[in-house]
């Protein structure tokens, strides 16, 4: 809508014609704006809605403003029509007619009565029995009321255009996820995700009802008639519900994946536990061998089979047979990890109990390597080296084997071989006979 200009002095004929043309254009702009507001989809929705809260109070005030706008517009039209009639009397107006036109166009020639006399909202002025206004003042007042009413209409229409449709789409997705959840046994009271779906369903129903009844409660930021982008619909509650549904959807899809490959995963768990059992059996046999062949060496005990894991595996198989996928999913994930841990524990136990045998094998290898080195240097028949070699060999190939004593014997043989291979020390040259030199 156009903005009014301040009043001026008495008008000439040309000024009267220009003022009438300008006021006529403003009249058309006001009429176009009021008709657009009257036909606005948001206004029609507000008229037919059962509003509550802030929307109810603000729309009641906006309706009053719209009614006053039409009263003011009729007064504006009547004043403009009167001015045009005076101007149409003759081509060259008399001074008296110019004074009358000046009063009509710039003076306080418009009389308002009743509610139409209320000043622009927020100025704190009360109602009067009547009020005299100029056309420019009347136009300014109409502009202010129009902006207030338009803010309410646009904000409500923006919220209704944005949120209900998105809520309906999310509700459709919610129904799809609930159908999948029921297919895998995820139901309220039996699984946390089933309870989450119920909460999301209730929240969406409440949110949609509140948006329809009180759209202005979901508007945040500046008014729509201010700078572009100053305000927007508040979608915080909708966004939280959408994120919660996405989390549930991922969990349901994980359960569906369990249903598709549960048999293969159970077979893998059984295979891992079987390998762990075989490894533990091998570790127990190795421990018995170590105890019989190695002396004075602490050998750790080997635990029995993982009975608890086999019980959980049996429960998982039972869940699969009875299609209790929502219970199988977390149980199977834990079983896979614990089975891998059990296999690692069995391998560590085998390594721990066979460590003495590995030490003995390493000492035997070192002894054979030193023996081969002595032979390469022609010391295979050396009596002292042969004695040291035989002593170490008897310790390493006897049962039970004392690893500490055997290691010392190997070290003695290594030391003797090193001394035998060391070059003999050279004698220092005798000092020259000083007397001979003299």
Cα separation of the termini: 137 Å
**Mean pLDDT score, rounded?**
78
Number of strands: 6
- By helix and strand content, what is the structural category? mainly alpha
**Low-pLDDT segments:** 1-8, 119-125, 428-438
Report the C-alpha radius of gyration, rounded.
51 Å
Main sheet makeup = 2 strands, antiparallel
Task: Tell me what the structure shows.
With 438 residues, the chain is mainly alpha-helical. The chain folds into four domains: 13-154, no CATH class; 156-258, no CATH class; 259-353; 357-421. The protein is built from 13 helices and six strands. The chain has helices at 13-39, 41-48, 53-87, 95-106, 135-183, 192-213, 236-293, 307-321, 325-353, 355-376, 383-396, 403-421, 434-437, and strands at 110-113, 130-133, 219-221, 231-233, 294-295, 401-402. It has a two-stranded antiparallel ribbon with strand order 1-2. α7 (236-293) crosses α8, α8 runs antiparallel to α9 and α10 packs parallel to α12 (403-421). It is elongated. The chain starts with 12 loop residues before the first helix and ends with a helix.
């Amino acid at each position: 809508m156009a903005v009014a200009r301040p009043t001026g002095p008495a008008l000439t004929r040309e000024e009267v014609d220009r003022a009438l043309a300008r006021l006529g254009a403003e009249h058309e702009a006001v009429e176009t704006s009021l008709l657009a507001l009257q036909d606005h989809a948001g206004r029609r929705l507000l008229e037919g809605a059962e509003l509550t809260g802030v929307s109810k109070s603000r729309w009641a005030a906006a309706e009053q403003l719209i009614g006053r706008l039409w009263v003011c517009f009729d007064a504006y039209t009547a004043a403009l029509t009167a001015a045009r009639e005076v101007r149409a009397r003759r081509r060259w107006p008399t001074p008296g007619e110019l004074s009358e036109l000046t009063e009509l166009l710039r003076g306080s020639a418009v009389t308002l009565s009743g509610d139409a006399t209320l000043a622009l909202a927020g100025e704190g002025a009360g109602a009067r029995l009547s009020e005299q206004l100029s056309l420019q003042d009347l136009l300014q007042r109409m502009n202010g009321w129009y902006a207030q009413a338009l803010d309410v209409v646009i904000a409500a229409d923006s919220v209704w255009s944005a949120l209900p449709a998105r809520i309906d789409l999310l509700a459709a997705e919610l129904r799809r996820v609930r159908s999948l959840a029921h297919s895998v046994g995820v139901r309220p009271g039996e699984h946390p995700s089933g309870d989450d779906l119920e909460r999301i369903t209730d929240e969406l129903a409440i949110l949609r009802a509140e948006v329809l009844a009180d759209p202005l409660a979901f508007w945040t930021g500046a008014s729509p008639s201010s700078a572009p982008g100053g305000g927007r619909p508040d979608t915080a509650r909708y966004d939280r519900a959408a994120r919660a549904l996405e989390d549930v959807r991922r969990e349901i899809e994980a359960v569906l994946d369990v249903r598709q490959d549960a048999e293969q995963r159970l077979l893998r768990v059984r295979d891992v536990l079987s390998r762990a059992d075989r490894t533990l059996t091998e570790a127990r046999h190795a421990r018995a061998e170590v105890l019989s062949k190695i002396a004075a060496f602490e050998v750790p005990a080997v635990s029995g089979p993982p009975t608890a894991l086999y019980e959980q595996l049996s429960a998982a198989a039972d869940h699969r047979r009875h299609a209790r996928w929502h219970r199988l999913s977390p149980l199977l994930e834990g079983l896979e990890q614990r089975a891998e841990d059990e296999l690692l524990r069995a391998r560590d136990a085998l390594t721990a109990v066979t460590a003495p045998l590995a030490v003995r094998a390493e000492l035997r290898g070192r002894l054979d390597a030193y023996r081969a080195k002595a032979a390469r240097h022609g010391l295979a028949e050396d009596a002292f080296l042969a004695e040291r070699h035989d002593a170490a060999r008897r310790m390493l190939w006897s049962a039970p084997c004392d690893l500490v004593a055997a290691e010392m014997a190997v070290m003695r043989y290594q030391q003797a071989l090193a001394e035998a291979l060391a070059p003999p020390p050279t004698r220092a040259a005798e000092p020259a006979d000083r007397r001979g030199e003299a």
